[in-house]
UniProtKB/TrEMBL annotation:
GO terms for cellular component: mitochondrion. It is an enzyme of class 3 (hydrolase). Belongs to the carbon-nitrogen hydrolase superfamily. NIT1/NIT2 family. CDD domains: nit. It catalyses: 2-oxoglutaramate + H2O = 2-oxoglutarate + NH4(+); 2-oxosuccinamate + H2O = oxaloacetate + NH4(+). Residues 6-251 form the CN hydrolase domain. This is omega-amidase. The keyword GTP-binding does not apply. PROSITE patterns: CN_HYDROLASE (PS50263). One of its GO terms (biological process) is oxaloacetate metabolic process. InterPro entries: C-N_Hydrolase, C-N_Hydrolase_sf, Nit1/2_C-N_Hydrolase. Keywords: Hydrolase. It comes from Apolygus lucorum. GO terms for molecular function: omega-amidase activity.
Amino acid sequence: MASKVFKIALAQMAVGKNKVDNIAKAVKMIGDAKKNGSSLVVLPECFNSPYGTKFFKEYAEEVPGGPTSEALSKAAKDNCLFVVGGSIPERSDGRLYNTCTVWDPQGCLVASHRKVHLFDIDIPGGITFKESDVLSPGNKLTIVDVGPCKVGIGICYDVRFQEMAAIYRSQGVDLVLYPGAFNMKTGPLHWELLLRARAVDNQVFVAGVCGSRDTSADYVAWGHTMLVDPWGKVLVQAEDQETILYADVDLKSCADIREQIPVSKQRRNDLYEVKSKI
Ligand SMILES: O=C(O)CCC(=O)C(=O)O
């Protein structure tokens, strides 16, 4: 993948309780993405397990080495494309993490991102969720080369933190990927708004990839997977059902808007600054 234009596939997958079926579905969607000409496919957050603190321990695996890592590595290699493996519960040194793995077309693990900002919220009458009851946070930001494109990774709640996306942009990222699992309370008002805000603020492409909606699940996902361009325009957006979205990412449009609206050169670093501490 050398071209500055490439086709991305966003897999809004239906995730169920059967882990083997979930992995098989992900592998099938990766194959479909390849057949449709994509060189990069992105899966949703927590795609091998239902999303919920009571499930993470049971579904957790080592990264790499566990069956989900093995399957993603093989699927990336068999189809000769990059795979951003949404996230899975990871077990490491007696702790659990919410972890995204990135696989290159040779099937090698080229990055893994542990969710940095854990999803702990409490909205009376809405939703209460506390990932930190069972998960530990990651302690690094993750940038990975996907062919000609520098990609920054965040997982779901990470999208609420503009500082993280700003640091990605300052380190040359053109595309930020957020595997997610927004819900029926915050999804309607915040999901698209946050993804578009990250895109406009940072003049980058942004994709949010959610699981499809299952109204019988304990946690009902919002869906509405989408790709936003650096202008903040939604290029493709799903509704709530299982589907794969395809779109061309043309990196020239990042360069164009940065020249036309040169906010990064106009920033008043004498008055304020966002900087990485790692
Ligand atoms: O930020 C939100 O409203 C939802 C976040 C979430 O679902 C997650 O982090 O998994």
